[in-house]
Structures
1.
Amino acid sequence: MLLDIIHGFEQNPFFFYTIVFIFALCVGSFLNVVIHRFPIMMEREFKESCEDYFGTECPAQQSGVDQEGFNLIKPASCCPHCGHSIKPWQNIPVLSYLMLRGRCKGCKSKISLQYPAVELLTAALVTVTAIEFGPSWGFLAAAVLTLYLIAMSGIDIKIQMLPDAMTLPLLWLGLLLSLKPLFVDPSQAILGATLGYLSLWSVYWLFKLVTGKEGMGYGDFKLLALIGAWTGPSMLPLVIVLSAMSGAILGLGLILIQGRDKAQPMPFGPYLAIAGWIAFLWGDRIMDSYLATF
Ligand SMILES: [Zn+2]
């Protein structure tokens, strides 16, 4: 049965890409929920351990923190401005946004462009992995990596924090997949994870000793460790160069477009995620063509 489906997809790749694109649009819609609600759930956890430790009440920063039974599934989606509940037909990825002309049905306030943007980005990137790997286990694993990287980037942009609950499982998954091995063998995965963590950790401490400032956080080390587990240590220099480049390009773009204050801290996680994703998919080819030019 499964083999028949895979065979059918191989015969008709365009059909496969279309199915993947539509499915990924829906998953992208869920990633919006994750990016919105996960930080609130994290704050609730911080607040509870804080109250446990100090034995005093801590005020909540975000709305929803004190809400009973708040998680990724409950309560049903609603407009953050007027509480108008979103019907299933108003929750179709991208299409609903276009049909509602980007405004809430209840109070006509603007719906953030983030929602269709995350949906389209998810669909596009997952489809690229489908084109790269074809209908295979490699594609499924690469799609999971892609989804997590998008969710983590969104959360890092929102609260300047990469949740352990996302970086660590993906690190373990990268190590487990190396047992097969799906992408790199176990020694490569272990070295990649360890050197990934240590390289940014040492940069962090050097930077802190020299300037007294903190340039990044421990979440960034874990993110590079997980990228190393999926790509092996040979890709780490490329990941660091690419993330610095995308950081410079996007950062400059943001300063030019938004007039963003240069001193405002920018999360490093999304740039690492972009670079790690590119190195995971095309790192070998980039390295080969780079070496061929010398
Ligand atoms: Zn509304």
2.
Amino acid sequence: MSEILVLVEHVEGQVKKVTLELLTLARKLGTPSAVWAGPGYSPDAKARLAEYGAEKIYLADSADISDYVVAPKAELLAQLVSEKSPAAVLVAATAEAKEIAGRLAIKIDSGVLTDVVGLQDGLVADQSIFGGGVNVQSRVTKGTPIVAVRPNSTPVEAAAGAGAEEQVSVTVSAAAKGARVVDRVKEEKGARPELTEAAIVVSGGRGVGSAENFSIIEKLADSLGAAVGASRAATDAGWYPHQFQVGQTGKTVSPQLYIAAGISGAIQHRAGMQTAKTIIAINKDPEAPIFELADFGVVGDLHQVVPQLTDEVVKRK
Ligand SMILES: Cc1cc2nc3c(=O)[nH]c(=O)nc-3n(C[C@H](O)[C@H](O)[C@H](O)COP(=O)(O)OP(=O)(O)OC[C@H]3O[C@@H](n4cnc5c(N)ncnc54)[C@H](O)[C@@H]3O)c2cc1C
């Protein structure tokens, strides 16, 4: 089986869920090899990668890789592509990894596909474009395909791989040291789960009405152990921070349950949540487009419905 390189996304030594998705996808196409770039590798990380099918783990854990912005990772992948001749390189469709993919494509003279939501035999990619309104199938026709896959587009499945480690030494070029990382600020994290990885997401839109009113969305989320999301109308109004925006220009979520309160269901919002397993909409307008997508709908004023729902959830716990 041909080797598929998977660039690992990790934070403080923890492998991110999207990497497990990429490994799951890679297993369908060939033999996955994880590429660990930067410090933080640990036996736990190895166990996690092997659990999801990494046959090999290429380790480039020097600080040089992470001390400079993006370019060293592209050089590392270019070196591995030239040494190992993999069938494809998979990265997450995050802002950083898409830039790595673009730089890698130039270096190895290959085609790159971004915002991919599925991969079929022959490395035919399903791409979700125009804000999720259109799906197209695409294939790289030149060089080693580089594919950036959207987080939360693939269900993860464990299947053990050998996890054989291989140290890779990379000499980062002077050109790749053009932009040094001078500081890292840890984002304040509350008790809620990470939005893109949460099993339940409760989102509020313009119908919430104000920043203060978002507390009712937060209370419902906390009663369910959920993450809080918001529509762009709500984040643009300054009612909720931008990093919680769900949609085409925000985060893509794919939880088991998505509750949309006071959100109309614009195509750009749907682009970020339409793969949720169950969708519940709360909206006072029975004609709101979100109801076309919803599995369950409540027509009513969210300021009454949401607190009542929270009370019921709390009572039943
Ligand atoms: C290039 C581009 C990118 C975009 N990216 C995104 C994106 O990433 N994410 C995103 O969300 N949007 C995005 N948008 C904006 C998008 O088009 C919509 O404008 C936005 O999603 C609307 O947000 P909303 O549903 O909260 O507001 P509205 O469309 O104004 O809907 C508010 C809803 O709340 C309901 N409501 C009002 N009061 C109550 C109440 N008391 N109780 C119950 N229901 C109530 C109303 O009936 C209505 O359906 C983008 C737009 C563009 C052009």
